[in-house]
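About this split. The held-out portion is used to measure sequence recovery: a designer receives only the C-alpha cells and must propose an amino acid at every position. Recovery is the fraction of positions where the proposal matches the reference. Here is one held-out target exactly as it appears in the evaluation file.
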C-alpha cells in the first residue's frame, strides 16, 4: 500500500484519472490481486482513491478535505465519549470566534455579498425547517471561506459531518428558526459594520443558545 500511496502523493498517478488496471499493479509491485485490492480499499478509506462500481478506481489528490475525511472514523468514535460532542462543539466555537473577527476586519465586498445571500436564503426558509437546516450550514460555511485559508472550509465540512447526527435529532420549529436567523443577522450586521468585538460576542451568544438545542439530543 505504501508504494501505491507514494505514487499518488508524488503526482505520478494523475489526479481524477483511473488507476492502472489491477494486473498492471500486480506486475509493478510483484504481488497478488488480493493484496492490490486490499491496498486500494485502504487508500479509498483514506480519501486517496474513489471507488466506483464497474469502473476502475479514480485517483484523488490529497488535500485538507482528505485529511479531515481520514480522521472521520476516529472522531466519530470519540464522539461516543461522555464529553465527546461537547468537546468538538467547543472547538468549533473557538475557531468561529476567530473567523468572525477576521471577517469583520478583512471581508471583501464579494465576501459580504456571499454572506448577505446566505442570510437571505436563511430568512426565506424559516417556515421550512429542512431547508432552513441547510441554509444554516451554508451561512456558517461562508464564514469559514472568508479567510481564504483552505484548512477552514475543510474543517467546516468535518464539523458538519461529525455533528450532523445530533443536529438531525434537534427539535425544530419556526420559533427556533427565527431565533437562529436573527442571531445570524446580528453576526452579519457586525461584520458589515467592521466591528470584530461585536461580531465575536454575537457568535458566542448564538452558539451558546444553539448548544442548548444540541443538548436536548442526548
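Reference sequence for scoring:
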Amino acid at each position: 500500500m505504501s508504494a501505491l500511496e507514494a505514487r499518488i502523493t508524488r503526482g505520478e498517478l494523475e489526479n481524477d484519472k483511473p488507476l492502472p488496471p489491477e494486473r498492471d499493479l500486480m506486475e509493478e509491485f510483484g504481488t497478488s490481486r488480493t493484496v492490490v485490492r486490499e491496498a486500494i480499499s485502504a487508500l479509498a478509506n483514506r480519501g486517496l482513491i474513489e471507488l466506483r462500481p464497474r469502473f476502475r478506481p479514480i485517483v484523488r489528490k490529497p488535500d485538507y478535505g482528505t485529511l479531515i475525511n481520514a480522521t472521520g472514523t476516529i472522531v466519530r468514535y470519540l464522539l461516543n465519549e461522555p464529553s465527546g460532542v461537547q468537546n468538538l462543539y467547543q472547538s468549533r466555537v473557538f475557531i468561529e470566534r476567530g473567523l468572525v473577527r477576521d471577517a469583520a476586519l478583512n471581508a471583501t465586498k464579494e465576501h459580504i455579498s456571499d454572506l448577505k445571500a446566505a442570510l437571505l436564503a436563511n430568512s426565506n426558509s424559516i417556515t421550512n425547517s429542512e431547508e432552513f437546516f441547510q441554509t444554516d450550514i451554508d451561512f456558517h460555511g461562508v464564514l469559514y471561506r472568508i479567510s481564504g485559508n483552505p484548512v477552514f472550509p475543510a474543517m467546516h465540512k468535518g464539523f458538519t459531518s461529525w455533528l450532523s447526527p445530533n443536529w438531525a435529532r434537534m427539535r425544530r420549529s419556526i420559533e427556533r428558526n427565527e431565533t437562529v436567523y436573527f442571531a445570524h443577522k446580528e453576526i452579519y450586521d457586525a461584520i458589515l459594520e467592521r466591528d470584530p468585538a461585536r461580531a465575536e460576542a454575537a457568535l458566542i451568544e448564538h452558539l451558546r443558545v444553539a448548544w442548548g438545542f444540541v443538548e436536548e439530543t442526548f
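Annotator remark: The two ends are 40 Å apart (CA to CA).
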